[in-house]
Amino acid sequence: MNLRTIAGVLLAALVLGGCVRLQSNTLDEAVPPFNRVLVVTKTKREGDRYARQFLGRFPSGYEVSVLGFDDLSFGNADSLIARLARENGCQALLLVEIRPTGSVVSTGKYSAAPGFEWYAEMRALPSNQPFWKAASNIWADFNPPDASVFVNRLKKDGILR
User: Fold this and answer.
1) Residue 4 to residue 160: CA distance in whole angstroms
2) Is residue 111 one of the residues assigned to a domain?
3) Which of 2, 52, 81, 120 is deepest in the core (most CB within 10 A)?
């Protein structure tokens, strides 16, 4: 390959690799009024750092608390979530996590890997009733999409004002 071909392939990989396809669905009749949100992230690594990305991304008027989990976290996630939501008076929960899709993705001519996706869900608190769900493709390094990807979709879907 010549240098131009290599540069073209790298550029295409960057452009396509930065693209995040996000599909979402809203249960309109279940969307509650809220302004206090608890964002919980469950990632492969650096869960707290990813959770903190959400602090500056919500529109003004929203009070956001965050809690990040990763493969090295200790504690019962459900009890920590319930306690933090109660202590901060949160009316909604945004959960963002990586999960297997059950499909196999080709990684080359002779290799394959399990497929994963970034999944997000908003629930009313304290009822825990889901009212918004979203799923996004990921790439092999498991790096989460920027927090603005989910926040912008929440705005587009009319969940955030």
Assistant:
1) 45
2) yes
3) 120
Strands 22-26 and 63-69: unpaired
Q: What is the total count of domains within the chain?
A: 1
- CATH code for the domain of 146: 3.40.50
Contact yes or no for 63/35 (Cβ under 8 A): yes
* 27 located within any domain: yes
Structural domain span for residue 124: 22-156
Answer for the pair 92, 122: CB distance below 8 angstroms, yes or no. yes
